[in-house]
Amino acid sequence: MTNSKAYPFSSATALAQALGKIDQESQGVVLPIHVATTYIRGADNTYPTGNVYSRADNPTYKPVEQLLCQLEGGEQALLFGSGMAAATAVFLGLKPGDHVVAPTVMYWALRNWLLNFATDWGLRIDFVDMTDLEAVAAAITPQQTKLVWLETPGNPMWTISDIAAISELAKSAGAAVAVDSTCATPLLTQPLALGADIVMHSATKYLNGHSDVIAGALITKQDSPYWQRIRAVRAQGGAVPSPHDAAQLLRGMRTMHLRVRESCSNAMFLAEQLEQHPQILEVLYPGLPSFAGHAVACKQMHGGFGGMLSIRVKGGESAAVHLAANTKLWKRATSLGGVESLIEHRASVEGEGTPCPPDLLRLSAGIEDKHELLNDLFQALPKT
Ligand SMILES: *Cc1c(COP(=O)(O)O)cnc(C)c1O
């Protein structure tokens, strides 16, 4: 959907009012859900509204896509049936034989898909340490590399990639840059303004925020033949969300700025407190001055360092699993970005080849009382 450049207000206002749209027919302050799968053709054989068939597109997506364009500074956006559907569409828009550079630290399910599916399908993929700009420059091959994929902060070590510096390297070699910005949210970082071409979000996480919708999104800086191929992947493969999910996602997004602010502030508090604890080996959080990516995070993240942190527990894997087993408030579950705090032992999820150490627990800070969250972790830590 095309950006409504006419909307002159802040992100907070854009979100709270969902761009101020009302239903013209009923004057309702909440937009209707369009359940129709098919649309009437004009007598002249055209589709006057642009709506044809709901495997390809649905009017319920439009306000969500416009809001995402507004937040990310993009020209067009597409909603997908999941974050993975959005991410894989970016790769399926390439052609067999194309070369891709991807991070060693990234969302595990996507890394698995790249290794097990995309390579069989014919993409040539190099995984590099995105914090090492010389290694990134060496991996990008002019004329061959078509896409550099970034994820920042990157799961589950929260590695920070310098979007501006890497975009410059990619541009000079003619490669596109796509950023999985799920954990930065559209509020803390705007990758398109830093030189990226496409932004991806798992809308299942902070955008929806209530752990009750699976959805994904892509936003492009500008229309291009590559973007049209990605659009065709969604339309022809049917990687679309249900209209009900799209409406529920928009409802969740209307409070995103408040939720993200609370999650960031809780995560910062927890990171600072946990770093002092004798049973904690290391806290990984971009907001800590002790964190390797802190300087770059300060440059490209604004208003907070995200709601995600990881802790490494003294005593190895068993101590980490013990901690997760003994929390009462923190819920042991995968996923992130919801109002409730989640804790997860990642190495056992990610399996062989993971860069994740066995003593690591991933924490998604929700919006509960920060002292109660901290005390719950303290009481669950193994006693020496
Ligand atoms: C969850 C997640 C995805 C995948 O999104 P789904 O909606 O679960 O398909 C991709 N990237 C990141 C960083 C995620 O957290």
UniProtKB/TrEMBL annotation:
GO cellular component: cytoplasm
Cofactor dependence: pyridoxal 5'-phosphate
PANTHER family: CYSTATHIONINE GAMMA-LYASE, TRANS-SULFURATION ENZYME FAMILY MEMBER
SUPFAM superfamilies per record: PLP-dependent transferases
Gene Ontology MF terms: cystathionine gamma-lyase activity; cystathionine gamma-synthase activity; pyridoxal phosphate binding; transaminase activity
Modified residues (N6-(pyridoxal phosphate)lysine): 205
Signal peptide start-end: none
Family per similarity comment: Belongs to the trans-sulfuration enzymes family.
InterPro entries the record matches: Cys/Met-Metab_PyrdxlP-dep_enz, Cys_met_metab_PP, PyrdxlP-dep_Trfase, PyrdxlP-dep_Trfase_major, PyrdxlP-dep_Trfase_small
Pfam families: Cys_Met_Meta_PP
Alphabetical list of CDD domains matching this protein: CGS_like (cd00614)
Keywords: Aminotransferase, Pyridoxal phosphate, Transferase
One record GO biological process: cysteine biosynthetic process via cystathionine
This protein's name: Aminotransferase class I/II-fold pyridoxal phosphate-dependent enzyme
